[in-house]
What does this fold into?
Amino acid sequence: MKILVLNGSPKRDASDTMHITRAFLAGMQDAGPQDVHTVDIIDRHIEYCTGCFSCMHNGGTCIHRDDMGALLEEVLDSDLLLFSFPLYCYGMPAPLKAFLDRTLPLSSMAMRKAGDRYEHVEQADFSHLRYLMICGCGFPNSRKNFEPAVMQFKLSFPGDHTILTIPESPMFNAPEAAVVTGPRLELVERAGTQYALTGSIDEALLEEIGTPMIPEEQYAAIVNGGA
Ligand SMILES: Cc1cc2nc3c(=O)[nH]c(=O)nc-3n(C[C@H](O)[C@H](O)[C@H](O)COP(=O)(O)O)c2cc1C
It folds into this structure.
């Protein structure tokens, strides 16, 4: 499978979240060879969308001349888009959001009803794409935290999406936390294998991956320097 990893962390390889993403990809590789290309979004020249909509009217050409044209070609040439990013203010980091906005040329201005919502009619064929979101965050709680990012991802990619959210992610970069992060990464690896083999991950495993690794109060106390 051709996998395009969109690393939305400005910390590049040092990203807490990328520990989770690498474990997931290792699990996928266990199921069979995968063709993985990782893009550090922070290093790409991606101008902000100006909202002129010219791309949606003239067959998909954006007014900007930056790295986005080549990235869109790579998107269309992939089987799986893996968005790996830290939760920033309950959403995705700005550079990755700029990338998402700039996928507009793939759609035309025309809209159609899809169930109880509307969506734009595509002007490129991306029907083969699958979408995966892996999101880490700094707070110990999953609820009242990930929901906006999860909803944005589901609405942006209604077709074939899978979502992993993991709280307390800074622990993945703390060697002294290996006793709890190791087993969590093993679960993530298992999820990767399952995804590669079946195209989905069972709900119980996703739920387990999304729970705090240590009790919330203990995590908060460590962060606050009290333990
Ligand atoms: C600007 C900014 C906003 C953040 N907003 C949130 C947030 O809304 N919820 C949360 O739990 N953590 C938040 N965090 C913490 C990060 O999600 C956390 O540090 C994460 O582990 C960083 O992952 P990375 O190393 O992959 O970039 C924020 C961090 C930054 C720098």
In short: The chain has one domain: 2-223. Residues 178-198 form the longest helix (21 residues). The pocket of flavin mononucleotide is lined by residues 9, 11, 15-17, 86-90, 136-139, 145, 169-170 (CB under 6 Å).
